[in-house]
Design goal:
By secondary structure, the chain is α+β, with helices and mostly antiparallel strands. It has 2 domains: 10-140, no CATH class; 148-220, Golgi alpha-mannosidase II (Immunoglobulin-like), CATH 2.60.40. The protein has helices at residues 10-13, 25-39, 70-74, 114-117, 119-122, 129-142, and strands spanning 149-152, 167-173, 179-186, 192-193, 198-202, 210-211, 215-220. Strand 2 (167-173) and strand 3 (179-186) form a beta hairpin. The longest helix is centred in the N-terminal third of the chain and has 15 residues, at 25-39.
Length: 224
């Protein structure tokens, strides 16, 4: 699990620095997609917080008069609390609540940017966050990743992975010892050589010879 109702959305936590007043939306979304692609490859259960599949950010600029979280009052108006991640999820790109309810305004106002993130705008669009999640969940089921064993890929392991700083790599292994997939996340700020294998899914655009920063890929090993 990456997100929950009592914490700032992952798109924002991954896109803001200690001195930033507002998150970097593009950076935050890129890192959030990479983190989710890594998380959904892990064995065990996986949990998603509503809105993550759309790449929703927090509503960070809610007017103070609409805030409802008791934290706002209890902190003497110093901390806004959790309202930013509790704004209703959009379903449609138009309407008073963007399809969340049948009529009327929602209890917390939705940012105008939410209209472009609604499923109605993302469904069937190649590269959209919604379609990435759908692909990840489909492959997770097909490859039965929740039941696999995890084996870290170390320098010198027989996976053809070149050891470089900032590259996190592991393999998902079936009970018979066969490698079902390898997963690689570039947590550095520069591109790194792309490991070998057939591309199954990626959190962002990748090239044949390198893996961009803040990007995760699932690869199927080439036949021996």
């Amino acid at each position: 699990r990456l997100g929950r109702s009592d914490a700032t959305r992952v798109v924002d936590t991954e896109g803001i620095g200690p001195d930033d007043e507002q998150p970097d939306a593009e950076l935050g979304l890129r890192r959030a997609r990479a983190a989710t692609t890594l998380m959904l490859a892990l064995p065990g259960s996986a949990y998603l917080y509503q809105g993550e599949e759309l790449g929703l950010p927090d509503a960070t600029e809610l007017p103070t008069h609409v805030l409802q979280d008791p934290t706002w009052e209890l902190s003497g108006h110093e901390r806004r609390g959790r309202d930013g991640c509790r704004v209703p999820v959009p379903w449609e790109s138009t309407g008073p609540s963007l399809g969340f309810g049948p009529e009327g305004e929602p209890w917390l106002p939705q940012p105008s940017a939410y209209a472009d993130l609604a499923p109605a705008r993302q469904r069937g669009v190649e590269g959209s966050t919604l379609e990435l999640y759908r692909t990840l969940l489909r492959l997770r089921r097909e490859l039965d990743l929740g039941t696999r064993s995890l084996a870290w890929i170390e320098d010198g392991d027989d996976h053809g992975v070149e050891h470089v700083d900032g590259l996190l790599s592991f393999a998902l292994v079936a009970s018979g010892g066969d490698v079902v997939a390898t997963v690689h996340t570039n947590v550095s700020s520069v591109p790194v050589p792309r490991p070998p294998g057939e591309l199954l899914v990626s959190s962002g655009e990748v090239a044949d010879d390198h893996l961009p920063a803040d990007t995760t890929v699932w690869l199927r090993p080439h036949p021996a």
